[in-house]
Structures are given as structure tokens and as C-alpha cells.
């Protein structure tokens, strides 16, 4: 049995049509399960509106059968334990668990908790989606920068990938936007190193977390000039002289 509240709506399970009790009632009446569910809705709605506790119901089985226009329906309810008592003092078992204001409050509270759990469970996915979108946007920005500029170096696929990786590193580590003209100036100076030298310089600059490409010095490892820790090598656009 299932129902709830003050005449406006009642609580019924979504899988009620497959409940073994419903299957048994349908078999006893030689009708389909959906007809049984509809008649249950009619009886439980009537009980929800007119009864307070489901005890000593002052009607008889004939009234319930007439209510759903199905002779023998009340007898089938008795068979599955959804109706008991004698005519004039019928009983709807577990009435207060399914009907009345308290049942409606419990049902609504249960739905609210389900909604909260569902929303909480979806947050990591949403967060992950946002993170993936940001990474994709950054990657696209790097590619757009390379597409905006012209350089013989970028005709080499490997160098192009290395340079894009450096642009991404520079943006993340130094939180700045690299204009196409700036990147083109870097590439112009990197050309003086030749293709292999340019690759080594860009790889080194990326590993060092440099803001701009390091174009001179030993690109195998950093070298320091003195105890101040300032690198000897020149960085495009910056002067590290003492």
C-alpha cells in the first residue's frame, strides 16, 4: 500500500506495477496490472482524504468494490494483506506509514536528500569538465599564437611542438599573455642558432621555467656567474649583467 497527504497527492512507488501483490491481484481478477494500479490509486486517494489512521473504517467491502467499479477487488486486497477487519470496521494496514501529513513530510524530505546527494555527486564531474576546458583553451591559445606568426623554424613539426610547450610553460609560470609579435621576435633570434640549436635552446628554456627563450650559453645545464646566482646566459629582452 502507498499514499500520502491531504487530498492533493499520494505517495505511490514507481515500481508498484511489478509488486508481487499487484501481480497476484491482477491474476485473481483476470485483468492487467495497470488496471490494478489505477484502482489502488482510487482507493488509497479516498482513504487519504477521509481517514485519519486507517482503523475502524466505517464502510464495507461492497462500498470499496463500487468505488473502483470492480466486484471482488476488496477480497483480493485481503488476500495480499492490504485490507483487513470486518465490514463496518475495516482496516488499512500500515496506513500512517504511507498516508497523512507526516508521510508526505517524510517523502518530501527523502526526495530532498536524494537531490542533494545527486548534486553533490555531480560536482567532481563539473569541476573536471571545467578543468579540461581550461586546459583545452590554453592549448588552443598556444596553437593560435604559432599560427599567427611566420618562421622557417615552425615548418619543422618537432620544433613547432617544442615551441608550443614553451609558450604554455611561460604563460603558466609567469601568468602573462604572449602576443604574436613577441613570439615572432623570439623566433627571429632563435633562427641564428640553427634548427638543432633552436630546439636545444627552447627545451632548456622550458626546463628552466624561463619567461623568454635563453639563446646563448650551455643549454645542457644552467651555469652561474657568481655567488649571487645570476645566470651567465643571455635571455631575450632581459639583461642579467651585474
Major sheet size, sense and barrel closure: 2 strands, antiparallel
Order of helices and strands: HHHHEEHHHHH
Strand order of the largest sheet: 1-2
Uncertain regions spanning at least 5 consecutive residues: 2-7, 223-242
User: How many DSSP H or I helices?
Assistant: 9
Counted beta strands: 2
Structural class of the secondary structure composition?
A: mainly alpha
Number of domains: 2
The coarse silhouette is rod-shaped
Report the sheet-strand fraction. under 5%
Radius of gyration: 39 Å
Return the average pLDDT rounded to an integer.
Answer: 77
- The rounded distance between the terminal residues' Cα atoms is 88 Å
| Helicity, as a percent range | 55-70%
Structural account:
By secondary structure, the chain is an all-alpha fold. 57% of the residues lie in helices and 2% in strands. It has a two-stranded antiparallel sheet with strand order 1-2. It is rod-shaped, with a radius of gyration of 39 Å.
State the main characteristics:
242 residues; mainly alpha; 2 domains; 9 helices; rod-shaped; disordered N terminus
Structure at a glance:
With 242 residues, the protein is an all-alpha fold.
